[in-house]
Amino acid sequence: MSDLDNLAQQLPSTWAVATLGDLIDYGRTNKAEPDEIDDSAWVLELEDVEKASSRLLQRVTFSERQSKSTKNRFDAGDVLYGKLRPYLNKVLIADQPGFCTTEIVPIKCPEQLDTRYLFYWLKHPHFLRYVEAESHGMNMPRLGTEAGRAAPLVLAPRPEQTRIADHLDTLLARIKACNDHLDAIPGLIKRFRQAVVRSAVTGDLTEEWRAENKCAFAWKPRPLATLGELGRGKSKHRPRNDPRLYDGKYPFVQTGDVAQSGGLIKSHRQTYSEFGLQQSQLWPAGTVCITIAANIADTAILTYPACFPDSVVGFVADASQCLGEYVKWAIDAIKDELEAFAPATAQKNINLSVLNDVVIRCPSLEEQAEIVRRGKALLAAADRIESRHAAAIAQAQRLTPLTLAKAFRGELVPQEANDEPASALLQRLAQAQAVAAKPKAPRGQPGRKKPGATDAPTAQPDWSALPDGAWASDVPADEFAAVAALTAVLKAWGQPMPQDQARLAAVLCLQPRLFTTALLASQATQWCRLVGAAAQPLPTQVARLQVAVATPWGNALRKMRARGDLLESGPGPHGRWTLTPSALGVNTTGWPDGRAAWVVGHLRAHGMAALLPALTPEVSEFIHARAA
């Protein structure tokens, strides 16, 4: 049984398994050449989107990016899917129009598919396994158009899609906040370790101990070379030896194996035979390893006899003067100062003489032992926290795929008996596509439009480039304004629109300050800039217009029906409005088209549920009422 068959058996009876091509025209794009793109337009590249998290890392304009390649246009509310190396899971919902690399596919969702529902499905573990298996190309795999159209899509009833998306918005935001907190912990642990080392070599760690033991020994500054054996390569005390004399008994430690955390990366050790029989010297366990090339002043304590190259210096402490662990921490504390001695070349390194002259403040051997004991205990606590953090990270990384898997098995929100099954939705969509594909008999003279007919706009303007007050209006909120607003909304939607969503969008266009309260601060500022004073929130003591009883709305609908501009289909909550060709003669240029493009884009991206909490009870009652 395939993975998809197994998933299908777990679905509720009202769900269905389809393909992306059944609902969306995957791969269909609107190209734009560089000379068609405004300097202030948003240009999105794959590098701008963080893998897996779908976080937008940066927003770059065309003038900043200076791209010379063809781009794909996208509108606000489009799902932007990265088809290059799709296993990186780079998916985004556009919050404003712009242009993107052709390696990103803009997807427009029909009314049968919630935008956020599709966004989350594209991040589902099953979908990721599919695209990884179907992508072509070795070094830079990408998902082809036909494979994209054939990709599976688990489809819930339309209202349930929105409920699932709303719930996922909340849960995944909490998971993201949890991950953000976990990501901050390594930095805290690093600062803690640095503080332990700093307090150890300054005497702060044992200040209380000295007072209790009435220690009168003064801390004495001593050059490192006088505290033990410091050297590398051939010396009279420790000559190089042919490694073949060791018969491969001892490992060879490379420069990168010395870690500042205080240990050696044992998995990177190499034997002499693996290294190629290079000559080196054998150092005993307890030697302090100090790198003088590449990672300057990284240190470690040898826990076993080993050899290392000339890029690593060995220090064997004189047991009558100092402890190796204390010397290691003293060097760790001045790592930044030692790096300053390395010349700014491609291969950084410091001279051995610099280490010879390093001055270390040494307390008595008794106090050094107490410092090492206390420091090791604190660093061991940090190691335990780090281990628990690694386990927590592993668990947290599983939360998102597990939550998505639960959501698309129908287990996240309850099913409702009144929801239209997904199978009926697919059947209706297939019938509509069949009718649209059927050739029509030619009428009238070919290639000529009826007088007054215009094409519906296919792209939204670049809002950031529009002047202040571009959508301001001195027209009173009468029936003519209501006709223009509703017509612009239905044009922007581009297909039969649920009546409640159409009423919501039209009301937000007519009363833009209602929309302001539902937007993020940055979006609200842009909206108010374009709409003007009408978008500014009212003072709390000023009463709002009661839209549910406003007569202009009823008069507008009656006139549109009388002229045949409005086509109504479906009963009750499933009713939909569609413009007829005669409605294209209504002038919506200016504020109606501008406001409608923004409102519809936001509605597609976030759904009604995200807007309703910001509205008054009177407005909500009007939205859910039967068409007035």
Question: Can you describe this structure?
Answer:
There is one protein chain. With 628 residues, this protein is α+β, with helices and mostly antiparallel strands. The protein has 4 domains: 3-155, Alpha-Beta Complex (Adenine-n6-DNA-methyltransferase TaqI, Chain A, domain 2), CATH 3.90.220.20; 158-206 and 371-414; 220-362, Alpha-Beta Complex (Adenine-n6-DNA-methyltransferase TaqI, Chain A, domain 2); 466-624, no CATH class. α15 packs across α16 and α15 (479-493) packs across α19. The longest helix is centred in the first third of the chain and has 45 residues, at 158-202. The chain is elongated, with a radius of gyration of 35 Å.
Provide the low-confidence segments as ranges. 233-237, 443-460, 541-549
Structural class: alpha+beta
How many structural units, i.e. domains? 4
Share in β-strands: 5-15%
Helical amount among residues, as a percent range? 25-40%
Main β-sheet description: 4 strands, mixed
Round the Cα radius of gyration to an integer and report it: 35 Å
According to DSSP, the number of beta strands is 22
Mean pLDDT: 83
DSSP helical segment count: 21
How would you write the strand order of the largest sheet? Answer: 2-4-7-3
The backbone outline, from C-alpha atoms, is elongated
Task: For the record, give the distance between the C-alpha atoms at the N and C termini, rounded to a whole number.
Answer: 52 Å
